[in-house]
Amino acid sequence: MDTEAYLARIGADPGADLAALQAAHLATVPFEDYDIHLGVALSLDLDDLFDKVVRRRRGGFCYELNGLFGQLLRELGYRVTYASAFERGDDGRPGPEFEHLRLLVGAAVGITIADVGQGRYWPRPVPLRPGEHGEVRVETDGTTWTTYQRTATGWERDWSFAPTPRRLSDFAPRCRHHEQAPDSHFRARRLAWLAVPAGRIALTNGVLRETGRPDRTLTAEEEREVLATRFGIVLPPDATWQEPATGAPV
User: Fold this and answer.
1) How far apart are CA 48 and CA 32, in angstroms?
2) CB 83 within 8 Å of CB 56
3) Which of 82, 141, 203, 221 has its CB surrounded by the most CB atoms within 10 Å?
4) Against a cut of 0.70, is the pTM above it?
5) Which DSSP symbol is given to 197?
6) What is the helix (H) or strand (E) element at residue 20, kind and residue range?
7) Which domains, ranges and CATH numbers included, belong to the chain?
8) DSSP alpha helices (H): ranges in 29-171?
9) Strands 110-114 and 126-127, how do they pair?
């Protein structure tokens, strides 16, 4: 991997620590799923991911972004584990494995959870240690870890995972599910999200949301312009997106 090109893409110094690398990534590489709606096949091959994110300056979703960021960290000397994360229902029963790719990173301060590939904004890595760590709470039952996100009404359960090492290819079947299945929530939402100093900007099915500003519904032409100017996503002139699948959960 060309680490210099990757660091230049996210505007990070070669000597940046893990927290600075994660913050730089979140501020420059959008969480987005436009390829799904453009009919462009996704790939978890690291060369393909590097081409997409670094050379073509696109974003991606969890498998793509955390997969590539994890490899960058490895090349910079960190110990990185790809961990399979899953959701739990209201009854506490676990959902499908490999629903989310989470990074466990060995650093001088111990193992931390790093995540540049989820819709919820994690501004910094979180220690893999029970307790409250800013806006994130971490719990464990001895084998499985669960994180919670602070909200206006209290703590909301996020992801559960075991620290079992996985290969990036292990996530390919679930990635294809989210890319192709009619009930995939990614099929229901054409989205791009990016961290900004004031909070976050989000474009979902043509509706632009910015922290502190009223929502704005865009025309297709305006959507292309906002993608380019605010998210750095320049789509091919002949690219047309498909309308989100109906019946999928939004």
Assistant:
1) 16
2) no
3) 203
4) yes
5) T
6) helix 18-28
7) 3-169 (3.30.2140.20)
8) 34-38, 46-50, 62-75
9) antiparallel
